[in-house]
């Protein structure tokens, strides 16, 4: 593990100006500007104006935020969100608290979409043949081509993202009536084909069931990062948290087994984690099924004979993959004991056999219909497979299509043969791009049409059969853009189809026809308004008939798994990155700079490998290696990752976008995906060789060991009884300071490490709320990350398969804060309600406070990081928080702007503050509700009660700084393998 | 003989120091506004309450400057001696959706988060800070906006509050205004 040098050689040269600044020049500049500033300050400002509305919108009160429910589609998921808008501009995104699935929480990627809207590099006007143009000219180019195609019967390709919107599907159907040759293909590069293929084969229907993690007491995850990059991660984290917080020793707790090749976020929270190469997942799962059948007499589904499972025994797979047989045996017992409260998940990237084995286990345990429920699953949206995409690439190259339209999907980046696809595009007479950015596909298209961002759009979604979600625009389109659906409607009209020109009218008309129930007691207008207001609409739907697992399909998969020969080389697993996902967030600085939750690497991807494999290859962290699979080669820096299964390597998808903020960091690993077969993200054998050269990893944390210090607490459930103690801080150290009194409030926080999964959602929420700047890879490499809340990670125990402790670290708002007495200008002070205040305009930047902070949570503006934030990105700023200039210290304020506003509102309404009324951005965003904030002088408040927990501890309590944050020890419930070995 | 360098330094200090006296410039700032709107006529002679136009001091940080449309609430019916005045300055703007860019009288620095709610809702009169606006044809600044001026009242607000007010102190912690 490479450690950061203690002294950097050149700490002051800004990354933007390379020539050195001499001390003399620096002083002269400072002197001159000080003189100028002093002079300017004395002149009454004659520059500022107040521009009043001409006609004020009724619902806007300047200075008061409005909240609107909407929906954000990402792949097959439709997040219910609540968007905060100030004076008509969206500035913060949270989950929609009235949404039945998300319950006020949302993914960190959805939260980061505010700067997606204000991205300065968005397309602003149509472009035809490489020249800025108009919509009229663009339509004049496209419509005749469509007309000719319709007349000549030549096919037209329409490549989109998943169409999970019923109204969008209707628009496409309308266009298809006008252009009969229209071939609609939906491509979701991050959605693995193997899971859908498996479901189709196993159940005859690819509809996705919902996993109810909240109902599960024993969870078995095979390379399934269900709390990280997988679909449904947000409700999964909330569900997982429900069974992870016993309030006294002896209370039950769920148990999570992670058998996985890479150390995923989910694996980092596992009670028992077993490094396992991806190809071993199916044999191990079949062996577990065999053990359940043989040992616990669990019947097999019809059509599956026990003899098919005979090749798989626990002792056999333990021997073959060097696993601890006793752990597998305990796992089988636990699954049998949990029965229908068990949940087995196979990672989407795993091959079909693993999904078959997981489905077999779920069916045998009767989990189907309980922890896994497909009763109200939406019909599977048609998606094309990588193999079909390869065929389309060939057809495109052969000039089969009269025109090709690419809407949202970015195939010349996100397919295995992206370059080949790009080349094939040249053979279509007309290529049209409908998208947000001038991306890899747009740069090769004849006509480029800028579309609305989703925060500028209307739409509806059908996430499940009993739920309809509505998307409403928060702002008028910033540029000369149109919504994709409206572009299609325009073409359909030009071809004579009798459709509405405006998509909102179209949407409402369709709802009135098809959604609005006959004989409803309210008018359609009220029905529609209520749906738009709530963002989601519950509908009566008939539950589907229970899925029946086809025994013969399982048997076929088991035979394939039994016949598979273990490869000799390294095995590769790919998965969408938890931040950049399929690469669509490549230009989002917040997400690029957010460290990966377990490895703490940001600004780029890498090839994670075990220390044994790295040693065999003679490489270490940051050494470039070349990975080749399927005739394509990708260069990646190595990350020697504890917990990585030997023999298997892992790389994240979504990096290596061209242009934008990524600055060429990261590599496009879609090139390593398979475009034949059913498991695109699993390669049974890849060649990895040293490529020479280095690309140092950019990490926010480089030391993961605790070195014997008790910075965090990670207990087993058994230890809980012994270690549980009096509430944290109940025996304060002696102090010479005056006793503190809190006349009104005393703000405090508790963080339950048992439910915190370390996802990083709090970091993005904080960045959005508090105008935290992005500093770029070079500055992060120098340890100058600006995140006010940092997700610390500690690796505990076994160096090759450590237990991972996550600990969000933020300003502890100490009662006896060590930063306060050392400030020479009193820029950091203590408030009457227990806040450690940082006053930017007083700060002169001596950084003594940061040096004296034992928690290392103070952040310094070494450069003017916000000066690069140009129009319109500055619109994403929260107007309630100062934008900090260069030379100023900053840190977490407990979202003091929210506190002051909440207190003021309660005062104006003449009432006491309600518990939970004030939520800092991190607590509001935490999907696990691990962060509790409130007034600790109110003994009934949630935070006061949580702080009394017998799991509570303060970090570095022995320093006597009396932090206001109480952490609750993390509990693990590892398997207790019976001694006496293994029996089948 | 006094060295010339010392003379320069002392001279500069005296000149800059005298020039930078806060009271000299901050009071009496009365820029010309884009239209010659008279508070004396509206708030004084016609006794329109401040909050008829500045609608939000009780529920928002910003008291808010009225929308152009607000003028028409009255001027739909009330004509002036110069009948073209409203046509040119209000109706034309509404028709063309051209905003009025008023000159800001009290321009607080960006790191100051003044909250009208906290002040108005304890019974403080607008005039305490803004002066007798109802007597001004052209609004001018009557209070300097240095922090010391805020603190005079925050430390002892009683002289400025209505008689019988229960408020004895305003907050003096930094994050009351700076965040």
Radius of gyration of chain A: 29 Å
What fraction strand of chain A?
Answer: 15-25%
Quantity of strands of chain B, as a count:
1
Beginning-to-end CA distance, first to last residue of chain A: 41 Å
**What is the tally of helical segments of chain B?**
9
What is this entry, summarized?
The complex is a heterodimer of chains A (984) and B (179). Chain A is α/β, with parallel strands linked by helices and 984 residues long.
What does this structure look like?
The complex is a heterodimer of chains A (984) and B (179). Chain A is an alpha/beta fold and 984 residues long. Chain A has four domains: 127-186 and 381-464 and 467-538, Rossmann fold (3-Layer(aba) Sandwich); 194-199 and 207-373, Dimethylsulfoxide Reductase, domain 2 (3-Layer(aba) Sandwich); 567-699, Barwin-like endoglucanases, CATH 2.40.40.20; 714-731 and 742-972, Alpha-Beta Plaits, CATH 3.30.70. A seven-stranded mixed β-sheet of chain A has the order 6-5-17-16-15-7-8, covered by helices on one side. A six-stranded mixed beta barrel of chain A has the order 21-26-23-25-24-27. The radius of gyration of chain A is 29 Å and the shape is globular. In chain B, 16% of the residues are buried. By secondary structure, chain B is an all-alpha fold. The longest helix of chain B has 16 residues, at 4-19. Chain B contains nine helices and one strand, in the order ααααααβααα. Chains A and B meet through α1, β1 and α26 of A and α2, α5 and β1 of B.
Topology, please?
The complex is a heterodimer of chains A (984) and B (179).
Chain A: H1 23-42, E1 49-51, E2 66-74, E3 77-86, E4 89-95, H2 108-111, H3 113-117, E5 127-128, E6 131-132, H4 135-152, E7 156-160, H5 166-178, E8 182-186, H6 193-203, E9 210-211, E10 218-222, H7 233-242, E11 255-260, H8 265-268, E12 272-275, H9 281-296, H10 306-309, H11 314-320, H12 325-338, E13 342-346, H13 352-364, E14 372-373, H14 386-397, E15 403-407, H15 418-425, E16 431-435, E17 447-450, E18 459-464, E19 467-471, H16 484-494, H17 503-514, H18 524-534, E20 536-538, H19 551-563, E21 570-576, H20 589-593, E22 601-602, E23 607-609, H21 611-617, E24 623-629, E25 632-640, E26 648-653, E27 682-694, E28 698-699, E29 714-716, H22 717-723, E30 747-752, H23 761-769, H24 777-781, E31 790-796, E32 803-809, E33 828-830, E34 836-838, H25 848-852, E35 859-860, E36 889-890, H26 896-908, H27 921-925, E37 931-935, H28 942-947, E38 952-953, E39 965-968, E40 970-972
Parallel strand pairs in A: 7-8, 7-15, 10-11, 10-13, 11-12, 15-16, 16-17, 21-26, 23-25, 29-40, 30-39
Antiparallel strand pairs in A: 2-3, 3-4, 5-6, 5-17, 9-14, 18-19, 19-20, 21-27, 22-28, 23-26, 24-25, 24-27, 30-37, 31-32, 33-34, 35-36, 38-39
Chain B: H1 4-19, H2 22-26, H3 39-45, H4 50-53, H5 68-75, H6 83-96, E1 101-103, H7 116-120, H8 126-130, H9 147-155
Helix pairs in contact in B: 5-6
């Amino acid at each position: 593990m490479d450690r950061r040098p203690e002294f950097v050689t050149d700490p002051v040269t800004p990354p933007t100006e390379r020539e050195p600044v001499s001390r003399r020049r620096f002083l002269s500049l400072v002197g001159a500007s000080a003189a100028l500033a002093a002079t300017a300050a004395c002149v009454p400002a004659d520059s500022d104006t107040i521009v009043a509305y001409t006609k004020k919108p009724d619902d806007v009160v300047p200075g008061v935020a409005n909240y609107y429910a909407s929906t954000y589609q990402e792949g097959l998921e439709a997040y219910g969100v609540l968007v905060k808008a100030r004076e008509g501009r969206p500035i913060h995104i949270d989950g929609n608290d009235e949404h039945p699935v998300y319950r006020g929480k949302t993914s960190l990627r959805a939260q980061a979409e505010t700067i997606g809207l204000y991205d300065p590099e968005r397309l602003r006007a149509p472009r035809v043949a490489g020249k800025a143009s108009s919509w009229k000219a663009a339509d004049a180019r496209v419509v005749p081509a469509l007309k000719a195609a319709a007349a000549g019967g030549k096919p037209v390709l329409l490549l989109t993202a998943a169409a999970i919107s019923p109204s969008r599907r209707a628009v496409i159907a309308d266009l298809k009536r006008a252009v009969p040759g229209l071939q609609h293909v939906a491509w979701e590069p991050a959605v693995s084909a193997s899971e859908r293929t498996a479901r189709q084969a196993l159940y005859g229907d690819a509809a996705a069931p919902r996993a109810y993690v909240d109902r599960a007491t024993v969870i078995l995850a095979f390379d399934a990062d269900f709390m990280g990059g997988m679909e449904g991660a947000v409700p999964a984290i909330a569900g997982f948290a429900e069974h992870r917080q016993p309030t006294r020793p002896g209370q039950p707790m769920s148990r999570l087994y992670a058998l996985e090749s890479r150390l995923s976020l989910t694996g980092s929270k596992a009670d028992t984690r077993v490094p396992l190469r991806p190809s071993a997942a199916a044999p191990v799962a079949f062996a577990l099924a065999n053990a359940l059948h043989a040992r616990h007499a669990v019947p097999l589904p019809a059509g599956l004979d026990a003899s098919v499972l005979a090749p798989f025994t626990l002792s056999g797979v333990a021997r073959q993959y060097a696993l601890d047989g006793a752990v597998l045996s305990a796992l089988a017992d636990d699954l049998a004991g949990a029965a229908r409260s068990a949940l087995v998940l196979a990672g989407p990237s795993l091959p079909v056999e693993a999904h078959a084995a997981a489905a077999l286990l779920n069916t045998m345990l009767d989990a189907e219909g309980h922890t896994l429920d497909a009763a109200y699953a939406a019909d599977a949206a048609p998606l094309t497979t990588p193999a079909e995409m390869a065929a389309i690439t060939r057809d495109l190259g052969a000039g089969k299509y009269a025109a090709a339209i690419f809407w949202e999907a970015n195939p010349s980046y996100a397919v295995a043969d992206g370059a080949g696809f790009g080349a094939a595009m040249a053979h279509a007479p007309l290529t049209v791009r409908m998208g947000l950015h001038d991306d890899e596909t747009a740069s090769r298209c004849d006509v480029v049409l800028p579309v609305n961002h989703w925060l500028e759009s209307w739409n509806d979604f059908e996430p499940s059969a009993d739920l309809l979600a509505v998307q409403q625009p928060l702002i008028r389109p910033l540029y000369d853009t149109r919504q994709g659906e409206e572009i299609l409607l325009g073409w359909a009209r030009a071809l004579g189809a009798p459709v509405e020109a405006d998509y909102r009218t179209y949407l409402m008309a369709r709802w009135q026809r098809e959604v609005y129930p006959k004989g409803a007691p309210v008018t359609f207008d009220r029905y529609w308004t209520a749906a738009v207001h709530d963002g989601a609409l519950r509908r009566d739907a008939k539950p589907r008939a229970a899925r029946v697992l086809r025994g013969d399909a399982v048997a076929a998969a088991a035979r394939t798994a039994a016949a598979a020969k273990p490869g000799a080389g390294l095995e590769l697993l790919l998965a969408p990155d938890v931040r950049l996902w399929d690469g669509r967030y490549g230009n989002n600085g917040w997400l690029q700079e957010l460290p990966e939750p377990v490895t703490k690497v940001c600004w780029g991807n890498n090839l994670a490998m075990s220390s044994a494999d790295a040693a065999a290859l003679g490489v270490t962290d940051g050494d470039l290696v070349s990975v080749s699979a399927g005739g394509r080669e990708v260069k990646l820096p190595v990350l020697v990752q504890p917990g990585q299964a030997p023999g298997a390597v892992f790389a994240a998808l979504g990096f290596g976008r061209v242009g934008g903020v990524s600055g060429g960091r990261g590599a496009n690993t879609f090139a390593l995906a398979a475009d034949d077969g059913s498991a695109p993200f699993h390669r049974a054998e890849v060649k990895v060789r040293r490529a020479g050269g280095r690309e140092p990893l950019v990490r926010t944390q480089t030391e993961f060991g605790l070195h014997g210090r008790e910075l965090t607490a990670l207990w087993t459930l058994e230890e809980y009884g012994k270690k549980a103690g009096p509430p944290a801080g109940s025996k304060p150290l002696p102090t010479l300071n005056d006793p503190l009194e809190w006349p009104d409030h005393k703000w405090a926080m508790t963080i339950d490490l048992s439910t915190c999964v370390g996802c990083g959602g709090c970091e993005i929420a904080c960045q959005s709320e508090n105008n935290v700047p992005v500093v770029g890879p070079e500055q992060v490499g120098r340890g100058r990350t600006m995140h006010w809340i940092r997700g610390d990670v500690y690796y505990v125990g076994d160096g090759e398969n450590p237990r991972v402790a996550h600990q969000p670290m933020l300003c502890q708002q100490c009662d006896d804060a060590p930063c306060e007495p050392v400030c020479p200008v009193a820029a950091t002070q203590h408030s009457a309600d227990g806040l450690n205040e940082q006053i930017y305009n007083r700060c002169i930047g001596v950084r003594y406070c940061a040096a004296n902070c034992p928690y290392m949570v103070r952040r310094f503006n070494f450069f003017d990081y916000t000066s690069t934030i140009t129009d319109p990105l500055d619109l994403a700023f929260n107007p309630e928080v100062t934008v900090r200039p260069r030379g100023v210290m900053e840190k977490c304020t407990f979202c003091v702007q929210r506190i002051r506003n909440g207190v003021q509102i309660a005062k104006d309404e003449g009432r006491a503050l309600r518990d939970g009324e004030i939520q800092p951005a991190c607590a509001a965003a935490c999907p696990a509700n691990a962060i509790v904030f409130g007034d600790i002088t109110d003994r009934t408040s949630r935070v006061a009660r949580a702080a009394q927990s017998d799991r509570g501890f303060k970090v570095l309590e022995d320093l006597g700084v009396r932090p206001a944050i109480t952490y609750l020890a993390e509990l693990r419930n590892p398997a207790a393998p019976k001694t006496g070995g293994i029996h089948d | 003989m006094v060295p010339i360098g010392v003379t320069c330094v002392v001279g500069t200090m005296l000149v800059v120091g005298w020039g930078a006296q806060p009271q000299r410039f901050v009071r009496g700032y009365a820029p010309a506004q884009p239209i010659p709107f008279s508070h004396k006529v509206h708030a004084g002679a016609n006794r329109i309450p401040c909050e008829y136009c500045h609608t939000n001091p009780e529920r928002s940080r910003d008291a808010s400057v009225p929308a152009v449309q607000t003028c028409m609430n009255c001027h739909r019916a009330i004509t002036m001696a110069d009948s073209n005045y409203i046509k040119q300055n209000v109706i034309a703007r509404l028709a063309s959706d051209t905003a009025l860019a008023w000159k800001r009288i009290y321009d607080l620095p960006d790191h100051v988060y003044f909250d009208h709610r906290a002040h108005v809702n304890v019974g403080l009169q607008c005039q305490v800070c803004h002066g007798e606006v109802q007597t001004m044809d052209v609004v001018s600044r009557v209070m300097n906006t240095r922090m010391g001026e805020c603190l005079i009242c925050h430390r002892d607000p009683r002289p400025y509050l209505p008689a019988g007010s229960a408020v004895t102190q305003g907050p003096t912690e930094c994050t009351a205004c700076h965040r």
